[in-house]
Amino acid sequence: MAHSSERKNDLMNIAEIVDRLISVPIFFGSSLAARPVVLDLHAAARSKIGKPLVFDAFERLRNGIENSGSDSVLILTGFVVPPWLKAETDGPVGSASLARSLNLAWNLTPVIVTEPTWVSSMGELMKYSGFGLRRDYSKKKGKDEYRNAFVEPFTLEMEKAKKQADTLISRVSPAAVISIEKASPNSKGVYHSGVGVDISPLSAKADTLIDAAKENGIPTIGIGDAGNEIGMGCIEKQVREILPTGNDCGCPCHGGVASSVSTDSLIVAGTSNWGASALESLISFHFKSSELLHDGKMEEFLIAKSAELGYINPASGLAEAGVDAIPADIHGSLVNILNFIVKSRCVPSYYLKKYVEFTRDKERLARLIQEESKDRA
Ligand SMILES: [Zn+2]
Known about the structure:
Helix content is about 45%, strand content about 10%. It is α/β, with parallel strands linked by helices and about 375 residues long. The strands form 3 sheets. It has a 7-stranded parallel β-sheet, sandwiched between helices. It is globular, with a radius of gyration of 22 Å. The termini are far apart. The structure holds zinc ion.
């Protein structure tokens, strides 16, 4: 295609802008670190990957979809936070919105993997992002092909995980595996919350799905915001240096919360849901359609619904309309800005076109300016 390199350039520019926007830590009330860790984690990942993180993830995702001919995508999410012992709103909301975008763009059937306790809530949330809900992917039929989603429980027991992962990967044969805010084991196999609490008994051993995907040549994408999530293994060394609990969790394992699970692509975001929205932005731009990126209203709606379903704001422990201590309307505003960025490049501006026309005749402009300056003198 004649315009293929131009398209790629455009996509790269949009990705650069989106990547910067979604990696700005706008909430800095946390006492977890003296400096917002996202700034340094993002810089580390960016330096390693050598291009906008969102661009790398999008290109890998698109290649996976176009080369595999697969009709499904696997999304791993759900993070149970102590002392509340409930899953947080970060992750499920981004999974629901990204699943919608992937389905509209390529008609991929989303298969969401989460802790058994949270399967029901996640299923309801998928309904609120517009899907019909199906259970048990092994019973998938042709009639499930359009606008339906599956939610699959994944074992908390390490002994059962490898077998379940192999079975699920071979049954679903996904175009890609995307992990959004999912607890990852450290190098000692222990899963931690950000502050270093061992949450292994409550966490699905979903990292085994990343291993199984890699064995089958299926692209993997990790999205995280702290360093203890699946995918952050890409920058494990830096997480150990940057995060106060990175190298020593303070729990009996003393192995640090740093993830040891790497993915092919890694998106570091201020809040993991934003990483999902960023991917949607590139999908939307790629297809030149703003409908493939959800809007701020829908973001707020999904966050409110996730709270109704029992997902919590990890800062307060309350099931309330917020994510990572940031109120829902602020998240909505960020998604609106992403929409504006995409639209600004997709839809040519009439004003700008006229402006360029009016300023083309440099001699005429010089004359006008001279006249004006005389009148003002
Ligand atoms: Zn530990």
